[in-house]
Amino acid sequence: STHCISSAASDVYKRQENHRGVLEFSDSKVRLHTALGILSIAGTELRICCADKQTVVCTGEIAAVEYESSR
C-alpha cells in the first residue's frame, strides 16, 4: 500500500533531501530510501540530474510521488 503525496502530472522535478540511498532507478520509476520510509516517484523520462549524500533531484514528467507503506 502507498500514501500519495503528489499526483500533479505537470511536475518536472522532485527534490528530496535527507535521502538514505537510491533503491531503484529507471526512466519510469525512482525509489529512494528516506527517514520516513521508501519514497516512490513514477512518471516518464525520469532522470536523476543531481545526487549527493543529502539531496537527490529527479527530473522528467512526474505522475505521482508516494511513500510506500511498510505493512
Structural notes for this entry:
The protein has 71 residues and is mostly beta strands. The protein is built from no helices and six strands. It has strands at residues 2-6, 11-17, 19-25, 29-34, 37-51, 55-68. Strands 1, 2, 3, 4, 5 and 6 form a six-stranded antiparallel β-sheet that branches. It is globular.
What's the β-strand tally? 6
Approximate shape = globular
Q: What is the rounded distance between the termini?
A: 8 Å
SSE arrangement, N to C: EEEEEE
How large is the share of residues in beta strands?
Answer: over 45%
Uncertain runs are: 1-10
Structural class: mainly beta
Put simply, the count of helices is: 0
Any chance you could write out the topology, listing elements then pairs?
Elements: E1 2-6, E2 11-17, E3 19-25, E4 29-34, E5 37-51, E6 55-68
Antiparallel strand pairs: 1-6, 2-6, 3-4, 4-5, 5-6
Keywords:
6 strands, six-stranded antiparallel sheet, mainly beta, 71 residues, single chain, disordered N terminus
